[in-house]
């Protein structure tokens, strides 16, 4: 029997947030009693305009979509101010990161990753038989620019940055980002999954930096996580190569039409941002443990002296799903991540945490 590639057999499977169905079964609760604040989804759900577009196009699903999602890219061009020739798409941002990593990382190449951070960077690097080089963040979770630059070698092909960072919620300053960009020819990929909730973005720098890629998603502020629509702003030289290797039809027909409708629904976007910012302030103020300042739609909480695992378990018994970060590399054993929900959901998670707090 042939063997699975060595770099793949060592990979730990991605551990997604618990689903409502799993918790229903495990704890004998009714789905109506469960709130899910474990996957940073949109508390208001999708834009009603996107839902309408999905309904209208249901009869067209026997047809292939456009191979390169040009209609969606045109709408993203309006939203971002970049030409369609600098906008790539993928099956979720996960798809965009996957293709981008495959463009640059070959066997033995290195990718720099700054834990604790989004775990897929490591997975995609390993899938290319690349070597992740981990540069831990400082104790306040800021990136350690000097240590990062010290770890750049001739083999470094990609540097993964995340701003706001998942699960810590902090952003990278423009000064630090420019320092990193200046120090390397490697591709610097800035993951801006949560940018709509933040005060800053790196997107404008793509115009002047030949090695900068900014990746984004419609899963969070646009509420389309179930449809898997991601995109990236890239320099023209990367665009040409990316489009050669992107599997055709990576964004499906429903994703394209719902994506366009969601981009047009400015009102829903603004309500989402307002709801998240208000809820984030409420959680930060009222959670009875140490919280970290966040520019995303979640708040990182240090539940010491309790363990994250115990707290998540106790919350799940009460029908509240949050994220146990002890499964995230470099996050230690006492961090949990709470997504911002509706006001009712936020009150409930605060109440549940008060009950488990020592
Ligand atoms: C930092 C970060 N990047 C990328 C993604 C993946 O986004 P998508 O749903 O578009 O694949 C997530 C999802 O949670 C994320 O937190």
- Mean pLDDT, to the nearest integer, reads 96
CATH level-four homologous superfamily name of the largest domain: Type I PLP-dependent aspartate aminotransferase-like (Major domain)
Low-confidence stretches: none
**Quaternary organization:** single chain
Task: Give a list of the ligands.
Answer: pyridoxal-5'-phosphate
Compile the SSE list and pairings:
Layout: H1 6-9, H2 20-27, E1 35-36, H3 48-57, H4 70-80, E2 87-91, H5 92-104, E3 110-113, H6 120-127, E4 131-134, H7 145-150, E5 156-162, H8 174-182, E6 187-191, E7 212-217, E8 229-233, H9 236-245, H10 253-264, H11 266-286, E9 290-291, E10 298-302, H12 308-317, E11 320-321, E12 323-324, E13 335-339, H13 343-356
Parallel strand pairs: 1-11, 3-4, 3-5, 5-6, 6-7
Antiparallel strand pairs: 2-8, 7-8, 9-10, 10-13, 12-13
Helix pairs in contact: 3-10, 4-10, 5-6, 11-13
The structure holds pyridoxal-5'-phosphate.
Written overview of the protein:
It is a single chain. This protein is an alpha/beta fold and 358 residues long. It has 2 domains: 6-45 and 267-356, Aspartate Aminotransferase, domain 1 (Alpha-Beta Complex); 49-264, Type I PLP-dependent aspartate aminotransferase-like (Major domain) (Aspartate Aminotransferase, domain 2), CATH 3.40.640. 38% of the residues lie in helices and 15% in strands. The chain contains 13 helices and 13 strands. The chain has helices at 6-9, 20-27, 48-57, 70-80, 92-104, 120-127, 145-150, 174-182, 236-245, 253-264, 266-286, 308-317, 343-356; strands spanning 35-36, 87-91, 110-113, 131-134, 156-162, 187-191, 212-217, 229-233, 290-291, 298-302, 320-321, 323-324, 335-339. Strand 9 and strand 10 form a beta hairpin. Helix 11 (266-286) runs parallel beside helix 13 (343-356). The chain is globular and about 55 Å long. The model has no long low-confidence stretch (mean pLDDT 96). The structure holds pyridoxal-5'-phosphate.
């Amino acid at each position: 029997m042939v063997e699975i590639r060595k770099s793949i057999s060592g990979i730990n499977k991605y551990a997604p947030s618990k689903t409502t169905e799993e918790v229903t079964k495990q704890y004998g609760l009714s789905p109506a009693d469960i709130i899910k604040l474990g996957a940073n989804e949109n508390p208001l759900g999708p834009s009603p305009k996107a839902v309408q577009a999905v309904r209208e196009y249901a009869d067209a699903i026997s047809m292939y979509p456009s191979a390169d999602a040009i209609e969606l890219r045109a709408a993203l061009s309006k939203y971002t101010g970049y030409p369609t020739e600098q906008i790539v798409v993928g099956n979720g941002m996960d798809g965009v990161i996957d293709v981008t990593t495959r463009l640059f990382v070959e066997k033995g190449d290195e990718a720099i990753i700054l834990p604790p951070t989004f775990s897929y960077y490591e997975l995609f690097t390993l899938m290319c038989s690349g070597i992740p080089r981990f540069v831990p963040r400082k104790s306040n979770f800021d990136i350690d620019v000097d240590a990062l630059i010290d770890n750049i070698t001739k083999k470094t092909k990609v540097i993964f940055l995340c701003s706001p960072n998942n699960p810590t919620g902090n952003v990278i300053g423009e000064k630090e980002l420019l320092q990193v960009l200046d120090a390397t020819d490697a591709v610097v990929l800035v993951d801006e999954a949560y940018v709509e909730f933040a005060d800053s973005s790196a997107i404008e720098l793509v115009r002047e930096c030949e090695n900068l890629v900014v990746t984004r998603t419609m899963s969070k502020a646009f509420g389309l996580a179930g449809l898997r629509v991601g995109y990236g702003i890239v320099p023209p030289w990367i665009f040409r190569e990316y489009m050669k290797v992107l599997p055709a039809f990576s964004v499906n027909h429903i994703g394209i039409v719902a994506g366009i409708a969601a981009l047009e629904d400015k009102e829903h976007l603004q309500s989402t941002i307002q709801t998240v910012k208000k809820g984030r302030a409420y959680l930060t103020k009222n959670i009875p443990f140490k919280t970290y300042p966040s520019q995303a739609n979640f708040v990182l909480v240090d539940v010491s002296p309790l363990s994250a695992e115990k707290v998540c378990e106790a919350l799940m018994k009460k029908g509240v799903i949050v994220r146990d970060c002890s499964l995230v590399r470099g996050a230690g054993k006492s961090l949990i991540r709470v997504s911002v929900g509706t006001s009712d959901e936020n009150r409930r998670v605060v109440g549940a945490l008060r009950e488990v707090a020592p």
